Amino acid sequence: MSENVFLVPIDPENFDRTVRSAVDLTEYPDRPAPLADLDEARLWAVDDDSGNGSTFEKMSEGDLLLFYTDDEYIGTGRIGTTFEDDDRWTSGAFWTAFPTTRVYTVTDYEEVSAPKRAVNRIFDYSSSYTPGFMRVADSRVTADLSSIESALDHYTKRNA
To answer: Which domain of life is it from (predicted)?
Structure first.
C-alpha cells in the first residue's frame, strides 16, 4: 500500500477541463495506449518545465494528491495510471499552454476548500509556506492517507 502524498499546483482553466470534470475519451480513437481501455478519465500532469521527473517517477497508484491554487487547496484525489506521453497527445488534446509528457489519471476526486495554512499545519510546514509540485517527505506524513482526506473533508464542511 502506497503512502505518498503529493502537493500539486494547478492552472484553474485546464484543471476544470480535465480533473473537475472527467474527460469523455470515447471521442478520441487515437488516444495513447494507457488510456485505450477507458471510456472516461480525469487527467492531470507534471509540467515538463518543472524539472520534477524524479518526483513523477515516485508516483504510484493510490498515492494521495492535494491540489491547490493560490492560498487554497481545492481538491483531493488518488493517482490512477501514470505514463509518459512522448507525443504530448494529452496536452495537445486538452490543455492550453501546458506542454507535458508526464501524465497521470486521477481517481476518487473530491472537491475540498481548505486554506494553505491548514494543510501546511498537517505536514508541519510554516503557515506561509508555498510548495511547488512536490512529494511530501515521509517524516512529515504522520497520519494515514484516509485520515488526511478526512481532515480536509471535515475542514471543508465546517467552513462551508
So the answer is: Archaea
